[in-house]
Design a protein that fits this description.
homodimer, DNA-binding, alpha+beta, 3-stranded mixed sheet, 38% helix, 2 domains, 5 helices, Arc Repressor Mutant, subunit A
Chain lengths: 143, 143
DNA sequence: GCATGAATGCAACCGAGTTGCACCCGTGCC
DNA sequence: GGCACGGGTGCAACTCGGTTGCATTCATGC
């Protein structure tokens, strides 16, 4: 198979779960795979527009939710209250980096540290670590 | 001084910065101090209503922003995209616990683990750790 | 070809948060 | 006492991310 093509890679990933690879799903997943950082709903809308295949915003929300439910993407909510999505497969417990200057969110490869102790009775299930600061671009631009 | 009275404690904290302790500021800070968990904007609106001293929502937003700017409160944005506020003084690097069942956010006393490694060029400034799971109330209710 | 269900598109809606502006009220000055 | 001034407050309208309801389209199995 042609794993070199982002399009076919997206189709392959979607069909791997036995689901039908509809145009919208393939397009969104392809855009997510192509994005180097996480992508917001708005970014994806714009990207779809740019390639002359505009997506309905509701369809986009539904496709994104579906991708997250399928484990093909994951979402992070930034400080600006905007959800951002990434096609990185869920490595449970990977950290994020949020740039305070440009607002972009990056997935970090590094694993997490120890989980903080929770009060008695509290049942911890997942750890969510976000590093705030400046991304390489903004550090460079500001220096 | 009467540190036993939440009201006077709030007045003292506000005036410590040389600012005027207006009714709205004292009321909001008092409500925050009285809350055992973090409080959302809506919670505070309701609490103010309950004590027959309703607050304008804009005033509340402005007072909260002011309190955060003064370092008298801090805000956390949950997965539900709602900001929650706490009067706990900023101990840089304290973690939060977000209950997936009831949505409440708690401040954890425990310190954070090691900061994940960031890619080259990235400048880390602050670490934000949130544990997801079920709070004591929800664990108890669900069992 | 046709029934069926999932996926899509459109419009209207919701809720958190913001902005603009008028008003109030305490303070300093004459 | 009257008045200008400025910070704080209240109201209304707005923005924006996201959701819901519903009709339509499309793929799929029979």
């Amino acid at each position: 198979m042609n794993t070199g093509s982002p399009h076919h890679e997206a189709v392959r990933l979607i069909q791997a779960g036995g689901a039908s690879a509809t145009a919208a799903r393939v397009q969104v997943l392809r855009l997510l795979l192509a994005a180097h950082t996480t992508a917001s709903h708005q970014t994806l809308m714009q990207a779809a527009m740019d390639e002359a295949r505009p997506l309905d915003k509701v369809t986009l929300y539904r496709v994104l939710d579906w991708l997250v439910a399928q484990g093909l993407a994951h979402s992070v909510t930034g400080q600006d209250r905007v959800r951002r999505f990434s096609a990185v497969p869920i490595q449970h417990g990977h950290a994020h980096f949020e740039c305070d200057a440009c607002g972009r969110l990056f997935c970090l490869a590094d694993h997490l540290g120890a989980q903080p102790r929770t009060p008695p009775g509290f049942e911890a299930r997942q750890l969510d670590v976000t590093v705030h600061g400046r991304c390489a671009d903004c550090t460079h631009a500001g220096a």
